[in-house]
Amino acid sequence: MKNLIQLGFAALLSLNVTTVKAQNKNAENSTLWEISGNGLTKPSYLAGTCHIMCSQDFEIKPKVMKALEKSDQFVMEINYTDPSEMTAMQKMFQTDKKLSEQLSPEEAKELDKILIADYGTDLKKMDNSSSQGLYALISMKAVPCPQTEIKLYEMELLQNALKNKMKVNGLEKVEDQMKSINKAYDLKGVIGQLKMGKEYEKLLKEMVSAFKKEDVRSVYTLFKDDRIMNAEQEKAMLTDRNKNWAEKMPDMMKKESSFFAVGGAHLMGDNGVIQLLKSKGYTVKPVSSL
Q1: What separation, in Å, do the N-terminal and C-terminal C-alpha atoms of the chain show?
Q2: Integer CA distances (angstroms), 126 to 11, 98, 123, 134, in order
Q3: CA-to-CA distance for 260 and 157, rounded, in angstroms?
Q4: What does residue 41 show for φ and ψ, rounded to 5 degrees?
């Protein structure tokens, strides 16, 4: 369970929901997309994921598993099989300067009250955590089931990839993700988000419902609600990262057929991975079955 807090943080940062116009639903109602053309000898695949779910809601569609089996390498946002990356992730949730030392006495008192009232802990227990460690509490509170019933989508895919002896890679380093997170959420911003824990509970419920319907248009901007993510945070957490990934993906696909698994919010929009790949000359189309 040690890594659930760490991976759970990524869950809420990477999955978003928005309203869909009826005429667009059928055209893009898929969590799995095939990438072809532009000189590729074999197709690659892009899967939008719901990072963290309760076992009762969890399902990986057969077409997703078939696409994974047809691919040569499995590519996640971060390569969790790299020991150095896991070490970096552990450091990501710790801080050299205590939280209480970064806040005024009044702010520290307010944070302590929030943690006691809503998160079953207190500032004394969390004082050596980073702001990212604090934010992780939100995602874990939002999941409506015990930790023993939590499923991590990428981890299930990773287990299958390793069983099939596939190469595993990552689109970014933990250090890159840390920079994006720090740019988006400073400590006081995280405290503001902690106050909105119930909003995240609603978010995750709607998000899981949309994901199960493969409604990727709806896995895009609930998180872009002004109360949760402003324009600067969206740029740091989604747009900039999408552009970095879209620069790396062509070389990976050229070498071998790749299966990319990224948070569902990264797929759609003008700066989503799908559109960025299309702008590079690739054909990217939804997969209904394989």
Answers
A1: 34
A2: 20, 9, 5, 7
A3: 11
A4: -85, -25
- Asked if 245 and 4 count as a contact pair (C-beta separation under 8 A), the reply is no
- Burial of residue 136, with CB atoms counted within 10 A of its CB: 0-12 exposed, 13-18 middle, 19 or more buried: buried
pLDDT-derived band at 9, boundaries 50, 70, 90? very low
Separation of alpha carbons 77 and 155, rounded Å: 12
> Could you state, in order of their start, the residue ranges of all structural domains in the chain?
2-17+27-94+129-286
The answer to whether 94 touches 128, Cβ cutoff 8 Å, is yes
Q: Where are the alpha helices (DSSP H) in the chain?
A: 2-14, 22-25, 62-70, 83-92, 105-119, 123-126, 131-142, 153-163, 174-184, 187-194, 197-212, 231-234, 240-255, 273-279
CA distance 154 to 261: 7
d(CA 98, CA 213): 43
Taking the complete model, does pTM exceed 0.85, yes or no? yes
Give per-residue pLDDT as tens, 167-208: 999 999 998 988 888 888 889 888 988 988 788 888 888 888
Per-residue tokens: 9: 């943080």
How many CB atoms are located within 10 Å of the residue 163 CB? 8
DSSP designation for 146 = -
Run of H or E residues at 47: strand 44-49
